[in-house]
Amino acid sequence: MIAYLLVSSLLIPANAWAAITPHLHSDLSMRVLHGLSTMVLLPLLLALWNDRRNLRLLPALVLAVFTIVMVLVNSWITAMGMGVQFGWLDHLLLVLAQTSVLLFFLLEPQPTADERIS
Q1: 20: which of 4, 13, 54, 111 lies 20 to 30 Å off by Cα?
Q2: Segments of the chain scoring below 70 in pLDDT
Q3: What's the whole-number average pLDDT of the chain?
């Protein structure tokens, strides 16, 4: 989990830099960045699904829809390559998505001893 959160936190400044300098990266580096950003969001979707009974409905639903949209868009960008209009905006949304990954897993309530036993 620590390695996953470390990768998520390192992608935040990388995506912020890609938003500021959209034409200074190569097609390969852009595909790798979008691919990694997509893969980082998948465990969040899995955790939202597994913990759906313990989470508040509205915030979890908003986060799930946002994450699904980001996974779909970034999968498409990874496959299609450079030349996406408003790509800088996608990088800013990825910063927001990866920040939500960190906040979700760092602020997730830990199960009590009774919950761990059952």
Answers
A1: 4
A2: 111-118
A3: 87
Backbone CA torsion sign across 62, 68, 74, 77: negative
Residues 6+ apart with CB under 8 A from 8: 40, 98, 101, 102
Identity of residue 103: L
Tell me the pTM: 0.83
Any idea what the Cα angle at residue 48 is, between residues 45 and 53, rounded to 5°? 155
Domain layout of the chain by residue ranges = 2-107
Write out the two tokens for 42.
């998948």
The tokens describing 117, both together, are: 């036993």
Measure the CA–CA gap between 29 and 3, rounded to whole angstroms: 21
Query: pLDDT tens digits, residue range 82-105?
Result: 777 778 888 999 999 999 999 999
Nearest to 99 by CA among 13, 3, 2, 1: 13
3 state DSSP class of 78: helix
The CA R_g of the chain, rounded to the nearest whole Å, is 16
